[in-house]
TrEMBL record:
PROSITE patterns: RNASE_H_1, VOC. SUPFAM superfamilies: Glyoxalase/Bleomycin resistance protein/Dihydroxybiphenyl dioxygenase, Ribonuclease H-like. Residues 201-326 form the VOC domain. Residues 171-192 have a biased composition (Low complexity). GO terms for molecular function: nucleic acid binding; RNA-directed DNA polymerase activity; RNA-DNA hybrid ribonuclease activity. This is Reverse transcriptase-like protein. Residues 152-200 are annotated as: Disordered. Residues 15-154 form the RNase H type-1 domain. It comes from Arthrobacter echini.
């Protein structure tokens, strides 16, 4: 366990605050195009306080993961340099080496590990290995960074108004701003978090599917990239989002035969704000590897009309999603 109340080597006492750092890195080719993602989460509420991602050129997967760790620790230090930090990563190598149980043989790894130890007092940092499926936010960020770098553009955070861009009331109260290349999820707390329930706002949307695994692989994947993390799952379904708003994918014996047809009376499609035009383009390209096909390709990206920049996607079951640029 780490110490939340003791003093560091310089004699300064800790604040007692705890923060969670989640980090990941990837390399397409290993070595190849590489990037990292890192975020800081409030352990009490689960809110993401700040996140960062960057393309680092050609590097190995291990270098990308260590670079993500350093970035995450630096983000935590910016929030509270005396906090106790719980690092969660799906890299067994980094976790075991930084915990002192495995030797660091590679010179590049030693340099990065030493850099990480200098960010925060080691006695205030604890490391835990987690499965990849529990590290989806950091994985998303690292993939966004690699996509951006390979497209020749800088990684840019999504619009903070997207669902599950959860806000940090403390930062808002102090007028805090994010460092360049980071997203600080700040601003006034939503009405629901202030004890008010805004009348008329959507509570949740339920989508019934005849192919739950396929819907999770395509629509579930897309929802997580749009800021709707999986909340829970059960035998016949899964939900994505937050307490403020969530979407449900569900299947079961009550499902009527016939399949989905978006042109029949009823809901035609779901539309999401997806960030900048570059964000929309990147996400649409990635979606093609996850069961999505671009609709109205001859009129893309203005199929919705002049000045309306969007990608219209359809999965194998016929569900349509619109990704709208800000």
């Amino acid at each position: 366990m780490f110490d939340t109340a003791g003093t560091d080597d310089d004699g300064s006492a800790g604040t007692g605050r705890r923060l969670i750092v989640e980090a990941d890195g990837g390399s397409r080719g290993n070595p190849g195009h590489a990037g990292y993602g890192a975020l800081v989460r409030d352990p009490e509420t689960g809110r993401i306080l700040v996140e960062k991602a960057a393309y680092i050129g050609k590097a190995s997967n291990n270098v990308a993961e260590y670079t993500g760790l350093v970035a995450g620790l630096e983000l935590a230090r910016e929030i509270d340099p005396r906090a106790s930090v719980h690092v969660k990563m799906d890299s067994k190598l980094v976790v075991e080496q930084m915990s002192g149980r495995w030797k660091i043989k590679h010179a590049d790894m030693r340099v990065l590990a030493e850099k990480a130890r200098k960010v925060l007092a080691p006695r205030r940092v604890r490391y835990e290995w987690i499965p990849r499926e529990r590290n989806k936010d950091a994985d998303r960020l690292s993939n966004e960074a690699m996509d951006a770098g390979m497209a020749g553009v800088d990684w840019a955070p999504r619009n903070a108004s997207a669902a599950d861009r959860r806000r940090d009331p403390e930062s808002a109260a102090t007028g805090g701003t994010a460092a360049p290349g980071t997203t600080s999820v700040t601003g006034a707390a939503p009405a629901a978090e202030q004890g008010q329930r805004p009348t008329g706002s959507l509570h949740h949307v339920e989508v019934w599917t005849a192919d739950l695994p396929g819907a999770q692989a395509s629509l579930g994947w897309l929802l997580e990239r749009l800021g709707f993390p999986q909340r829970n799952a059960w035998g016949g379904g899964a939900s994505y989002g937050s307490d403020t708003f969530y979407l449900v994918l569900e299947s079961g014996p009550d499902l009527a035969p016939g399949g989905h047809e978006r042109r029949r009376p009823g809901v035609n499609h779901l539309a999401f704000r997806a960030g900048s035009r570059a964000d929309v383009d990147l996400l649409a390209r990635r979606a093609s590897s996850h069961g999505w096909t671009l609709l109205f390709a001859d009129r893309h990206p203005f199929a919705g009309g002049a000045g309306h920049y969007a990608a219209y996607l359809e999965n194998a079951e016929g569900f349509e999603v619109e990704l709208v640029a800000d």
